[in-house]
Amino acid sequence: MAVSDTSPMGCTWQRYLEHLTGEHGGWTALTHTLMRRAGPWVGLPVDPGTIERGLRRLKSRGNASGGQYGRWLLRYFGVPQPLEDTARWMGQYHGRFADLPLSLREAQLWLWDRPPIAESPTACWIHLGLASVALRRRNPQDARLRLVHAADTTHVAVAAQVESALLEARLETDAGQAVHADEALARAQAQIARLPPGGERDCYHARWADQRAYHLIHAGPQPRLLPAARLYRSINVRSPVAFALFRRDHGLAYCHWKLGDRDRAIHHARAAAEQAGDAGLLRFRVMALQLLAHIEPREAQRLHSRADRIITELEHVDLKRLR
User: Closest Cα to residue 92, out of 142, 36, 160?
Assistant: First the structure.
């Protein structure tokens, strides 16, 4: 997804109002649009000048609560699309924001975990991003708490519901609760079907397929590799999104390796590394390099060294478990 507002700072009321005044043609136009949308029955002052002064004062409130004027703006205008898109990008596991060094990613999310975003439905994406950070820090309690906060946000977008269900399934899997994980994956699958066709749906389907395949391979008495491979092949091979293609090739590489077809496994593992690299998705490139190191033991030392350098730069120590 293209993101049009990714400057390295939080979202203040000033930034929020700069977007609104830009969209609506200035302070006076914004004032009259608010009066028209709200109508006379919500308690707005009748004098446009009074309203405009109230809006201008709100601009200086930084990340403090927006009070009544802030509630009016969020109710009748919502969060401007560029800010909504940035929050969504920060909350999704499969985007490039997730490749940032973990401390930087966490700091950016904390800057957005305050008003005005924290007082809007867009807050669900920030909670989801922080849940993912907690998961990588191996802090399931904080991750679960953030998922609760995300669920408490009203009017949660379908994509956010999918993101939440997939993170919940991961938490349940890590806790050894396969039945609960399956229930969360079933919810995710139903919500994915509601997304419009396109790259975002491909990414979520790829993540769902990968988590479902993991259960087939690891949760039973015997690995069910052929059904798992079918799941990976269900990922759109013509997807315009490199993440989905990475996930497809990475999963097929693992399945073919375990099925004894080393040549096909190497082909898919190298393709996965290329897809991740082409998209600048370094975290996923690490996964592909580590898998390739298992498939080609003669190259293992070199491949692990390359992967370890990336892990150090990204502070993604959870990936070291894949060795």
Answer: 160
